Model the fold of this input.
Amino acid sequence: METLPIQVTVNSRTYTAEVEPRLLLVHFLRDVLNLTGTHIGCDTTSCGACTVLWNGRPVKSCTVFAVQVDGGEILTVEGLERDGQLHPVQEGFWEEHGLQCGFCTPGMMMTAVALLNENPDPTEEEIRKAISGNLCRCTGYVNIVKAIQYAARKLREGATVHVGGA
Amino acid sequence: MTATAVRGIGVPVKRKEDPRFIRGKGTYVDDIKLPGMLFMDIVRSPYAHARIKRIDVSKALAMPGVIDVITGEELAKANLAWMPTLMGDRQMVLPTDRVVYYAQEVAAVIATDRYTAADAVLAVEVEYEPLPPVLNPFEALKPDAPLVRPDREQKSNHIWHWEAGDKEKTDRVFQEAEVVVAQDLYIPRIHVASIETCGCVANYDPATDKLTIWMTSQAPHAHRTVFSLVTGIPEHKIRIISPDIGGGFGGKVPVYPGYVIATYATLKHKKPIKWIEDRSENLQADSFARDYHIHAELAATRDGKIRGLRVHVVADHGAFDAAANPSRFPAGLFSVCTGSYDMEAAHIQVDGVYTTKPPGGVAYRCSFRVTEAVHTIERMVDILADELGMDPAEIRFKNFIQPHQFPYKSPTGWEYDSGNYPAALQKALDMIGYQELRREQAERRARGELMGIGISTFTEIVGAGPSHTFDILGIKMFDSAEIRVHPTGAVIVRIGVQTQGQGHETTFAQIVAEELGIPVEYITVEHGDTDTAPYGLGTYASRSTPTAGAATAVAARKIREKARLIAAHLLEVSPDDLEWKDYAFRVKGAPDRYKTMQEIAFAAYTNFPLGLEPGLEAECYYDPPNLTFPFGAYVCVVDIDRGTGQVKIREFLAVDDCGTIINPMIVEGQIHGGLTMGMAPALFEEIVYDENGTMLTGTFMDYLLPTAVETPHWKTAKTVTPSPHHPLGAKGVGESPTIGAPPAIVNAVVDALSHLGVRHIDIPITPAKVYRILQEKGVAE
Done:
């Protein structure tokens, strides 16, 4: 099978690789880079478990080819914590019981990070709309909303965080 | 030690499992990568019913990277083409001559990577001769219906007939009754659709002659026993590990063909084999829930006193009876369908039927048919109220089992342990402002607006179960815990149940913290590895806290009794002179003379009394004396859009009573999630087949899981009525909201339309369904 060279920065570290043109970004992250925090929950861009930030924008990495992100920057769940300090979104999910089985959580948190980058003070309705492309089967979303509100408060209060990827 | 330091029962302890999950460091099955690992993918049937004429694997085998293609013929030689189900039926692993459902496993490809395996699936050529599908269970019961299972001795599609209650007495009550209402209710086929699909990594190591399977399993020990029986490999040579599980809801209780084929493949190739379903495979072929065709009748007096319930169900189980009900209960605990109401008599009949669909009747956050039971009685009570012109709250108060009647023997033989139903409903009505809502409804109705208020006052039945009645494949439904207190007072707890998000690593630590006075952060809970955890039946049917939770408390109390002897030795008093108070053994009358569990633990290894066995460990295999009966009162308020038929849940209040609460934060989270999984089939989810038996809802674009936008902001409250027989008074909670919510929602929608003569709507109540009704009634906009 023909391969193509790519260079991509993931969580601030630059990787070069030879990949099949059809290799999905999510498989590149999970199987090639061993960053297994990004999960796969469907095949139809519906569930959002595989959400990562590509140049700061949330994308479903099951619907992006690895070759597409050549030269780009990717942020995954593994890149949220900096210098032993949890990102406020991670903290919020823990504090507010925003996760149960944890499978949708990384994708959900990446969408939340992207939302708060754009809108530091979202209403409940704005939060619900922003995460409507991420399915959670366990929590009923109430505590996910609270977790994102917690993170928004924390960020507005001036927590020093580096959200990277953009 | 203070309660603040211990953080035991009743404290909203932040979850111990979360730090790994929020960092993306959980270990789910697909995260496991072993050297030399091969990938398996499955060829599936495009027909619901067909004879297999020929399978040609040559093109697939010729592809670079393809190692093997396994067919039913090969498995048959190893006596593995069929496997037993947990219900004592048998199920094809791979077919030798015919397929009996759409997307059934037909052959398995083994390749060096997942992309090659997927390519090779397309290269396997299978020639089929289509046979007529059997999709409707009523048609399936007709004498001339095509036979779904010619392998069985009994040449019909009827699987079993099951009854509960007293037929004669019930018929008599119906003959005498002043009022009888009857209704057909269909609860359609649905799918749990946990966000993680199913899969495994099977690895046979010839050097140690040991088979290890990492598996999406809610019941690893039971699965180990099944694997041993199926393969003939001694049980100590099989290790099943359930790592982190991305949601289960009952869908990870059955043994799926993929697990067995991957196991066969690793034994054959002596290399690790990974098999992970994609979403469509998961939705199309894994076990389904519900599919219950119910005919229910309620007998009552003219003033609204319920006298009897008569129910007949035709249950569509698909092509294999692969449910996971206790063996004596092929219809699960459906006979709890007399619900929260005191009545003279009930008679329940269920007939299980084969159709050419994947195995049904399994689970959707309720394994044992309690959802169907609650839907039946909660709908019927509303229908009776409508018939008599009574308020749905009033008719419930009139018929509730009263607090003084517990323990209450139900007409179908269950002994409800404890409850206070009027208090729960009154609390719900007061909190939501029921009378005010009724006034608002009347005003809106006068303006032509459609607003409804629905009530559900359900009784749940969980904690299976007592060994005298409950077993799966003969294995009694006890559960277990093992506790080791290390010299420094740190603890490891191992339990026989398996979390899939319920937070066992936290709640079970809190139980031990409370019982031993050791801070929760010094307690680690492990589960899911059959080489280390004690034997248990696993987590489903809300059984973890009632069974393994009890085992944990009892094991901790055994440790405490030994600790008393050591404390007495250290304090130089008689054990009888000590009392356990404020998390320490204290000398009676001199509470300042005490020993903490930490001090005692050190002494257990360094300074124990002569003649006492060293160490501080205990285990318990807990055989529950009875089931537990959580309950709740739910109120749902809906508005219906006359222009679109859209149902909007304006408000939903859930008052739950699950007995003693170990971690209120986790319980509330369980209720939120359960309510959402109750709303989903009430309004959105349904598995649909076309006339050929092809499944039309095989992706998340067709099978609609609720998103954050459709899901309301759930409101919760509680009453606490401890279980009298559980060591902690706890009852279990995970499934209550999923069984309680659907009838509350349906009752609200029907209530909104009742003045138009609508008495019942089958779920899911989609906008299209509602709009058709609005058109029929001439009120569509």
Q: What stands out?
A: The mean pLDDT of chain A is 95.
